Amino acid sequence: MTATTPDLADLAVLSRRFEDAPATEIVAWATETFGDGLVLASSFQDCVLLDLALGVAPDLEVVFLDTGFHFAETMWFAERVRERYRMNLTVMHPKVEVGDLWQLDIDSCCGARKVEPLARALEGRAAWMTAVRRVEAPTRATTPIVSFDVGRGLVKVNPIAGWTDDQVDAYIADHDLPVHPLVDRGYPSIGCWPCTRPVAPGEDPRAGRWSGQSKTECGLHA
Question: How many structural domains does the chain have?
C-alpha cells in the first residue's frame, strides 16, 4: 500500500479495527508503516496527541502552521510544549504576505495562511496525522481513524477521532499536561485571533470560530 495507490478496502478495514484500539497502537502502526513519510500536524490547542505520539515515536516530525495571526498565548504554549518534548518541530509560514485579507475574503485568508503552507509541509510525504475528533463539530462526526486524503493524495490518520471531551480532559489530568491558557478564559476552540471569540456557557464549542458566518472549517480538514 502506498500513498498514491492505496488499497481503500484495506484502509477501511484498518479503520474499523482501530475503533477499539488504544491510540498508541494506531500511532505505532502509522510510524512503522510510513516511517519518515509521516508527519503530525498540530495546532497546539492542546498537547494530548503530541504526548501520545511522541511517547511512541520521539523523533516524529511535528508541523505547526504559524499563520502570523495566532494569539500570543498560542505561541507561548507552543514554545512551552516544544521545550517539554524537545520535539522535531517544523514551523511553516505563509508563502506570501496577505495582510488583512481576513476582512475581505476569509476563505482566501485561510487558504494562504493554513491550507497552502500545509500543502508544502506535506510534499513528498506518504501520510499525515491529526488530532481531529468527531465530537468537535458536525462536519467531523464521521471522521474515520484511517482514510485516504483524496485532495492531498496521501493517507490521513486520526488516532483520537473517537475520543470524547471527558476522555481528553482525563488524559490531560492523568498525565499532568500543560493546558492552553485561553481554555480557562472561554475558548474551547482556538484559531487565529481575528476569527476566534470566547463562547458562552451552553454554546457549541466551535461557535467562537468565524462567528456570524457560515464558515465552520478552515480547509485543512475539508
Answer: 1
